Amino acid sequence: MAHHHTIPDHVSPLARLLALDALVHEKLIKQAVAVALLHTDIATVARVIDVGVGTGAGAFALAEEYSAAHVLGVDLDADMLADVRQRADHQELGDRISTALLDVEAPDFDAGVADLIWSSNVLHEVSDPAIAFRNLFRSLRPGGVLVVMEMDGSPSVLPSAFQPVERALRVAAGADGPRVDWSGPMRAAGFELLETRTAASDQLLPADGAARDYAALELQRLLDHASPALTEQIAAEVRDLVADLSGSHRRLTEVHIRGTRTVWVARRP
Ligand SMILES: C[S@@+](CC[C@H](N)C(=O)[O-])C[C@H]1O[C@@H](n2cnc3c(N)ncnc32)[C@H](O)[C@@H]1O
């Protein structure tokens, strides 16, 4: 059973978005974990590292499937790690999920050696991916598996009636910009690429709870990143929709959350 947790008010906007993302995209995360399972033998996976663990979406899903493994979540952000530990204790997983404050780009990165490394929506943020991939390579035993996931652009959140507005917003915010391709950097670090897959999410949901909050945060994030090319008319319309999603008198009764993510699976020979 999924262990949904309520999101406390005091968390940072990123932690809040990640926690909402985990709730809204639970199935997508499960799809990616299923890809990891295809390439690993559960019996030989004793140690998993989640690099850039954030609020733990990957770490908790991995701990559930790899039920005999220890999962180490590493991140640069001590508050995220504290949140992960607190949630692990709360779910009586404190002995199976631990955390370490580490930078995957540091030349002396040392998270020990794992059978499986997972990193979701993190590596596009690092300034020198070549160093990060070399560090990940060193942190896997020979035969160990690396699973990396990235979003293909930002998710869309509005129903079809609002597509012209959403399209204009997405263009102005570069939401569909070129996505990263980690195949080359993975091979350059010594990995054997096993497969690349697309995980997809397409959900028409009542504009309520986590889905509503997620849609409002995503629209606001795009608005914050929009170039001056966005007309004042569209910007005002988007601000209205954000207010509408946050208020009690609704024009929007549904949100349509859809997007794809790429999953790369590689092996240390
Ligand atoms: C967009 S969040 C993704 C979190 C989580 N993996 C998920 O899918 O929900 C990116 C996370 O990577 C962490 N991060 C960014 N650069 C990092 C680095 N160089 N080393 C370790 N963690 C890093 C951030 O602090 C943040 O928690």
Automatic annotation (TrEMBL):
InterPro entries hit by this protein: Methyltransf_11, SAM-dependent_MTases_sf
Protein name stated in the entry: Methyltransferase domain-containing protein
Single Gene Ontology MF annotation: methyltransferase activity
Gene Ontology process terms (BP): methylation
Lineage of the species this protein comes from: Bacteria, Bacillati, Actinomycetota, Actinomycetes, Micrococcales
Stored Gene3D superfamilies: Vaccinia Virus protein VP39
SUPFAM superfamilies: S-adenosyl-L-methionine-dependent methyltransferases (SSF53335)
Methyltransferase type domain mapped to chain residues: 49-148
Signal peptide annotation: none
